[in-house]
Amino acid sequence: MRDFSYLRADNIEAARNAAALPGAMLLAGGTTLIDLAKCGVVEPATVIDISHIEGLNAIDVTADRALIGALAKMSHVADHAEVKSLFPAVSEALWQAASAQLRNMATIGGNLMQRTRCPYFRDPANFPACNKREPGSGCSAIGGVTRGHAVLGVSEACIATYPGDLAVALVAFDAEVDLGERRLKVEDFFLAPGATAEQEHDIRPGEVITAIEIPGSAAARRSTYIKVRDRQSYEFAAASAAVGLELEGDGRTVRDIRVALGGVATKPWRARAVEDALKGKALDEATIREASELAMQGAVDHGANHYKIALAPRVIARAILKLGETA
Amino acid sequence: MTVHDVKHAASDSARLEAVGGRLSRVDGPAKITGAARYAVEQQLEGLAHAVLVDSTIAAGKVVSIETQAAKAARGVIAVLTPDTIMKLSVASDWFGNPLAPQRTFCPLARDVTYCGQHIAVVIAETFEQAVSAAALVMADYDQAPALVELGDGTAGEIISIEGMTKEWGNAQAALAEAPVHLSAVYNTQRSAHAAIEPHGLIARWEGDRLTIWEPSQWLDGMARTYAEWFGIPFENVRLVSPYIGGGFGSKALALAHSAVAAAAAKMLGRPVKLMLTRSQNFTSYGGRATTRQTIDLGADKAGRIQSIIHRGVSEVSLEGMWVEAVGSITSIMYDTPNFSSRQDVVRLNTVLPNPKRAPGENPSAFGIECAIDELAHELGLDPLEIRLINYAEQDPHAKKAWSTRQLREAFAVGAEAFGWAKRSPAPRSMRAGHQLIGWGVAAGAYPVQRAHGEAVVKIMFDGSVEVESSSIDMGQGTYTILAQTAAETLGVPVSQVSVKLGDSHFARAGVTGGSRLAGIMTGAVHKAASQALDELIGLALSDPRLPFHGLQANTLAVKDGRIGSPRGDGPELSIAELMSMLGRDRIEAKGDTLPAGTTAEERYKNYTTIAMSIPHTEGDYSRHSWCAHFVEVKVDEDFGTVRVSRVVSALDSGRLYNPKLAESQWKGGIIMGIGEALLEEGIVDRRHGRTVNSNFADYMLPTNADIPDIQTISVGIPDPHSSALGGKGVGELGIVGVAPAIANAVFHATGKRVRDLPITLEKLI
Ligand SMILES: Cc1cc2nc3c(=O)[nH]c(=O)nc-3n(C[C@H](O)[C@H](O)[C@H](O)COP(=O)(O)OP(=O)(O)OC[C@H]3O[C@@H](n4cnc5c(N)ncnc54)[C@H](O)[C@@H]3O)c2cc1C
Ligand code: SF4
Fold first, then answer.
1. Which of A105, A290, B148, B197 makes the best surface tag, with the fewest CB within 10 Å?
2. Are B706 and A125 in contact (CB < 8 Å)?
3. CB atoms within 10 A of CB A251
4. Mind listing the UniProt keywords for this protein, alphabetically (chain B) (predicted)?
5. B111 DSSP β-pair partners
6. How many whole angstroms from A33 Cα to the centroid of ligand 1?
């Protein structure tokens, strides 16, 4: 960890101006930033503390949409009564993330900006090669310990898993991220590695996330987030699924379905093939399981992460079955 | 030193405070309020801060180390490398045997034998300055190929540990003749001690006297090591370790980083503080070694074992020796006429493994207790029944009677409390929704390790009592049970007793390991307190000014801090009144459990080495603690995730000095067992020999959410052959047998036998 200067931004304009400085990084809850600075992964020249900006932590939910300020704490959003009733998958994704202590510190804006947990990425002293950190330096993970690495959206440059939970639910329900001048679909905000593994987010110098907006829908109202991991709590997903379901009046035919995956892809992964296969179909277990397999089209494993190809469809299927049962 | 306040209703005191009472930890409030000051929390004038630089290769040579930039950085006092740090003498091993052949010991490595080995140290005015400068130290290496996994086809040098071979009968021939056979390989993983309190120390020199504040499970042993390293008399080293935030076996030795800090302090003439980072706590010292065991069982059709052939191997570093003795309890669990067990170690580019809770016994149980379960399944027998069919009525290896073995009782009581009779025998036959339910059982054992200890007991002018010992409390409750022992022996309330531990200048004690401390120290305190009391009573009876004079009594008794005739009639004084009338400010006695005539040299050896430990099979008996674990797991049929939903354990640790503390120890062991069965694994990149999950987010310890209700039941009876007060070992026992009980339950739930720990979800998908 090297010396840096500290600036406190009291309003969003000041934050944007400061964020345009070379080597500047925003500090919200600090649970990612400080951690990565200690690992030697990020070395900000200036840290801009945005945690005191007023009004950025608002949570405003109506039947039409949820508007969540970038500084809202993960724990507050998870516990918010309307989020729970109108967007259950969002609440469930949040309370199953990290630990209670972290959720009390961490913000929604920071959550979208969290970095991969690839162990090689996080250990520059021992593993200089990492395209995500140092473009062109190579990838230490390929050929190494890959149990947690992605099977979807990988490239030869990088196979790192997008680790977060919230964004998986956001992608499922077509949420948008507000960057001030620009507004992007969360799905487009996250970038798969391709040949430019270092670019994870479509965010430009001087841009600050101010809020996310999630459109309300029947599918969002009947939604869930299932997270599978070896440890019951405080672990990133081996595989997870955010699923929303809207049925026709007959109570079994699918009118609308949303499926997104976490823990298995390089970005929060919308599984449209599964959605398309199920729309208009009557739900039964065999149909659900068969359709869920379509999520793994194009999956590529690196040995130790092969199990994810079998696991992820089962997580999707379980989530759909669970929502179907609550009809 | 914090004085511990004891708070509970006075009406409860007799019941709670007696030896055997459920007194809460006397050090608990100090720990919870933060008043307890741990070793490295000492605030010293002029303290300098050291941060280590570690090798990033696992094998090879450090060709050069660039230190200019670090030296020029703000606040830096010195940067030391293998060339510039002072050379020390080589210290002797656990047994006090000198370690040839090197003449000197350089605590920073030039020849690298594992990744994470310390190669340089930066000392600065502040911790932050040292951290920042350490990142500027650059090393050039001449890298050599590394061997990092026990399973590597090209594994390193194999060494047979001949002393661990156990054979009787003709195991090969009996196996060939047995109608039922089973052969399987069981693997246990590298696991970390993962104590919450990291390793670290403060070293301060005053002339040729060295004071070390360092968490320690063995003050006298570590003081010896420092004395030998620096060539100073043992008495010149003072080690202070008032509290320990978890050791589990890792804090019994002074390690390379300890030597670096002490050497730096000497070179700079300033006290130096050095803490290992969380990551270094995974790489600077070894955890439990990786093991592999092959078991061949032969049995008759009724399930009676005819032969056991066991071959075990564990990993060890290129330098030093630690054997994870995977055959340690294979030989005593079941009665078999023919037996053969051998142990090898394989040298790898890894840090020297260390003892971790029930070293040897824990992986040993995973082999034999899974194998017997597999045999039961093959024969269609209940897993509990097969254990009773093969019950060992005496130690099959030593051919001696058990001192006490309440294992049959443990099976019966545990099965009853668990409801074992309702188990449906077929695998995969119990479920709730998507959850496959499995019930498993396994037994465990831990030998009674004995040695000697000494204690000082002082009766003070005001009636208070002080107990002093260089033994330690790492959470297991030494402060509490020694207070109970002194209070009971002297007839005073616990609130009048203050126990002082963790200073090597106190009365001496050997290593706190192998669950031996409670048995030794309660014995020593009992003896010292009895001597002090005898002296007090003698003075009281013989002093003509006192009311007891002329009573014709030949003794007096103390109750609730008041002294009088044993029958309770006649005059009575408080101890404070008596001390004042006697004109004494204290009565002090030193008691030890050593045989009369022990020489000074033998005493030194007894406390600073383990060479004088008494074998558990000494004399006519074989002494062990025993346990039986009953476990319920739920395995998700789609996801392969395993959750332990219920544990009932019945344990025989002999007499319990404090059941509340014993239960906590057992439960701690069971929780650690759940971690090792399902979650924990030090994962190494085989190309680099680097541990890639050296942090608490990626190294999976169980969280509270992973731990179900655990019921522990004591089935022990006082064992007079094991200790002065009848206790056997507690702390190590609980973990032994947990992993096989879980693996057996997973098999029962799923029909899948997982023989490689940890049982992670991909193994069940
Ligand atoms: C041990 C551990 C376990 C975890 N487990 C999980 C888990 O299971 N699931 C999960 O989803 N997450 C998990 N996390 C990640 C956690 O959710 C994130 O660390 C947290 O959400 C980050 O929020 P923060 O406010 O602390 O961000 P900070 O650390 O303050 O910032 C993180 C990054 O975002 C940038 N940033 C912050 N705010 C803004 C903004 N408004 N606009 C633009 N950029 C911004 C910062 O510059 C920085 O680069 C875990 C983290 C840890 C340390
Ligand atoms: S997978 Fe990506 S993040 Fe990990 S080492 Fe390779 S390039 Fe770096």
1. A290
2. no
3. 10
4. Molybdenum, Oxidoreductase
5. B61
6. 7
Amino acid at B582: L
- Is-contact B668 B730, C-beta < 8 A? no
3-state secondary structure of B634: strand
Ligand 1 touching residue A165 (CB < 6 A): yes
Question: What ipTM did this prediction achieve?
Answer: 0.97
pLDDT tens-place string over residues A66-106: 999 999 999 999 999 999 999 999 999 999 999 999 999 99
- Contact indicator for B19, B725 with CB cutoff of 8 Å: yes
Q: Is B760 on the interface with A (CB under 8 A)?
A: yes
Alpha-carbon distance B139 to B120, whole Å? 9
pLDDT digits (tens, 9 = 90+) for B628-645: 999 999 999 999 999 999
> Which string of DSSP letters, residue by residue, matches B381-418?
--HHHHHHHTB-SSBTTTTBEES--THHHHHHHHHHHH
Nearest residue in A to B131, CA atom: A1
CB contact under 8 A, A1 and B128: yes
Ligand 1 in contact with A27 (CB < 6 A)? yes
Q: Render pLDDT for B102-140 as a digit per residue (tens, 0 to 9).
A: 689 999 999 999 999 999 999 999 999 999 999 999 999
Residue A317 contacts B, CB cutoff 8 Å? yes
Tokens 């969003």 locate to A12
Instruction: Compute the distance between CA of residue A219 and CA of residue A222 in angstroms, rounded to an integer.
Output: 5
How far B279 CA lies from chain A's nearest CA (Å)? 10
* Assigned token pair, B503: 């200073």
Amino acid at A213: E
As a whole number of angstroms, the distance between CA B337 and CA B397 comes to 10
Ligand 2 first shell, C-beta below 6 A: A 116, 118, 120-121, 130-132, 139-141, 158-160, 197
> What confidence tens digit (pLDDT) does each residue in B130-168 have?
999 999 999 999 999 999 888 765 667 899 999 999 999
Nearest chain B residue (CA) to A1: B132
Identify the residue whose tokens are 């841009």.
A207
Percent helix, strand, coil in chain B, to 5, is: 30, 25, 45
Contact B693 A143 (CB under 8 A): no
Whether B197 is a known active-site residue: answer no
* Most distant CA atoms of chain B, gap in Å: 86
A299 touches chain B (CB under 8 A): no
The pair of three-digit structure tokens given for residue A131, joined into one six-digit string: 């395209």
CATH topology of domain A218-325: Enolase-like; domain 1 (3.30.390)
For residue B191, give the DSSP letter.
B
Q: Which residue has the tokens 């599984």?
A: A271
Spell out the domain ranges in chain A. Answer: 5-49, 218-325
pTM of the model: 0.97
Ranked by mean pLDDT, which of B2-16, B270-284, B512-526 comes out on top? B270-284
Are the C-beta atoms of residues B66 and B133 closer than 8 Å to each other? no
Check residues A172 and B155 and name the one with the higher pLDDT.
A172
- Buried-state track B343-363, b at ≥16 Cβ within 10 A, e below 16: bbbbbbbbbbbbbbbbbbbbb
- Write the single-letter amino acid at A118: C
Distance of CA A205 to the CA centre of its chain: 21
CATH architecture of residue range(s) A5-49: 2-Layer Sandwich (3.30)
φ/ψ (deg, to 5) at B621: -125, 160
- In this structure, which residue's CA is closest to atom 5 in ligand 1? A98
Chain A neighbors of B51, CB-CB under 8 A: none
Q: What distance in Å separates the CA atoms of residue A237 and residue B189, rounded to the nearest whole number?
A: 23
Distance CA A98, CA A84 (A): 18
Residue A226 has pLDDT above 60, yes or no: yes
Q: Which domains does chain B have, with CATH numbers?
A: 3-36+451-608 (3.30.365.10), 40-144+200-275 (3.90.1170.50), 291-449+617-763 (3.30.365.10)
Q: Is the dihedral of CA B508, B513, B514, B517 positive or negative?
A: positive
